[in-house]
Amino acid sequence: MVMSAARATRSGVPAKARSASSAMHAPRELSLVAAHNAAAQHVPDCPAPIPLAVGVHSLRELVEQAVTEAEAQAIRRALATAKGNKSLAARILQTNYTTLHAKMKRFKISAEKFIPS
Which residues lie closer than 8 Å to 85 by C-beta, 6 or more apart? Predict the structure, then answer.
């Protein structure tokens, strides 16, 4: 049985069409990344992480702490880039606004701290 080129791909979309589609979004994504990197140099209220002792805590606990710290840091950086604009920060993080808002509440992160004076 011979498969067509379109069926040979996982998504069913020919590779040329996928690359053209992703290229259309690249400039916007690159500009968000550049702005994010520029703002990441100064992130207010970013406490130093308290490491868990290896051998005392399980791998699952260590991973959960690392993920939590990474998420909180990413949210702070996105808010710094967006100058406190939660909607823009959610777009930078490529997540839903309500998800961002819930995580901000969970990590006790306030957008007001990122609004320039």
Answer: 79, 111
Give residue-wise pLDDT tens across range 1-28.
Answer: 555 444 445 555 555 554 444 444 445 5
List, as one string, the DSSP characters of the chain: ----HHHHSSSSS-HHHHHHHHHHHHHHHHHHHHHHHHHTT--SS-PPP-PPPBTTB-HHHHHHHHHHHHHHHHHHHHHHHTTT-HHHHHHHTTS-HHHHHHHHHHHT--GGGGS--
- Give the type of residue at 67: V
For the segment 27-73, what is each residue's pLDDT rounded down to a tens digit?
555 555 555 555 555 565 565 666 666 678 888 988 999 999 999 99
